[in-house]
Specification:
The protein is of the alpha+beta class. It has 2 domains: 288 residues, Pnp Oxidase, Chain A (Roll), CATH 2.30.110.10; 104 residues, UbiD C-terminal domain-like, CATH 3.40.1670. The chain has 12 helices and 23 strands. Helix 4 packs across helix 7 and helix 4 packs across helix 8. The protein is globular and about 75 Å long. Bound molecules: flavin mononucleotide. Flavin mononucleotide (FMN) binds next to strand 8, helix 5 and helix 8.
Length: 452
Amino acid sequence: MPYTDLRAFLSTLRQSGELVDLIRPIALQYDVAKALAKSSAADGPALMFKDNGTKFPLVAGIYGNRRRALLAFEATEETIHDRVSKAIDAPIGPIDFSGPPPCQDVVMTGDDVDLTKLPVPTYSPKDGGPYITAGIVVSEDPDTGIPDIGNYRFQLHDSRVLGVFSAPNHRFGKNMAKAIQRKVPLHGAIVIGVDPMMAFACQVQSGDASNDWFVAGGLRGEPVELTKCVTSDLKVPARAEFIIEFVVDSEDQREEGPLGEYTGYYTPAGPKPTAKVTAITHRQDAIFQGLLTGKPITENHVLKQIPFEASILRQLQTQFPTISDIAITSSGGVQVYVVIAMTPRYEGEARQAILAAMASNLHPKWVVVVDPDIDIRRSQEVEWAMSFRVKPREDVFVVDRTAAAPLDPYTDGGYSSAVGIDATRPFGAEFPDVSEVPDWRSFDLPEIERSR
Ligand SMILES: Cc1cc2nc3c(=O)[nH]c(=O)nc-3n(C[C@H](O)[C@H](O)[C@H](O)COP(=O)(O)O)c2cc1C
């Protein structure tokens, strides 16, 4: 059975020792982030900050490590990619929630809207202010009406105004650009506190024509139940903890940033559009959610890695069926460093696959292709392949003037460049055998156990 809402997942986390309540006062400014960083460094649990100076509890770090991500998917390391891949192949459409939706137990509009009453942390000392980092934005393509869901950060400017940042290659950014071009308002809703499959569905790379509610339904194995917003026609998950409804104002640009981001660096401040909040609705006894982002590995990286790997693998396999696996590493922000395992079928195919990966919406800087005998999740093995299966003059190439990953701190403005490394054995040529002692795994050697 899928988790119906955030609360169902929190009970599983609690039962598994993966969620701990903090009942003493913890400050939203910096101390929440310190607690999260400390728990993460100790491979500790997610944290529920009950006394944070507001009337709402704040839970954070719920996808803070791979173990909790696997609990969310109800999968193991062995089954995870297959689980996601099959779900993407079996989309399930949303249904309308019947009855009064829990996410609108409490409705605040007009003068009652006050973002400062929410437990929004300030994470890093140079951040421009408090940030909503665990928000899922619902927006629609102004031309087609196709809904998109994605994680986007929001800076709290004042009680009714948020700062907006979306990379131009992400769908919320594309929807904003279209709305400006067509001179129509863009409505949005920030959804906070949902069942885990909806959270991970945001990160599935499924193309601009996909309706993300179908992707989320596929991952859940059951339809998402939606309800209409109170100040727009957008539909949002009925069992969410909070919904913040807004209209984008691209004329009223305000300084947004800096924010310590997933690259491990602060992104500089700059003028960005604002979101004018039209309503805040929430459940009875609602739980707010926070999320630490910054130098890898943070919850941001954990959220992206499984859906990114599964969906980019599927995209590449349509053209290159002998690609067996892909690693999009946390150290590369789950974006700029990609390792592919593949058995090339003809000379030059590895290079074609590298170019296809470079053309994906990841905008990577490094793409390495290795033979399938290399464990692509162990950097030591990948480095071994790059050391002894590469002739640098022949197998390494640079593609110049590629589109940059928007928050990469070291690029040539909007442009970047990308390195491809074909670390597969030369196609169709003799190559030395790997010298490895055979059958050592099954060799009987009780003496070493006794010596421990
Ligand atoms: C926690 C988190 C926060 C994110 N914040 C932003 C953001 O502020 N702006 C942005 O463009 N992308 C952000 N991303 C990346 C996008 O959510 C992600 O690439 C997503 O796949 C975009 O999907 P879409 O293009 O279908 O909306 C964030 C990702 C995560 C996991």
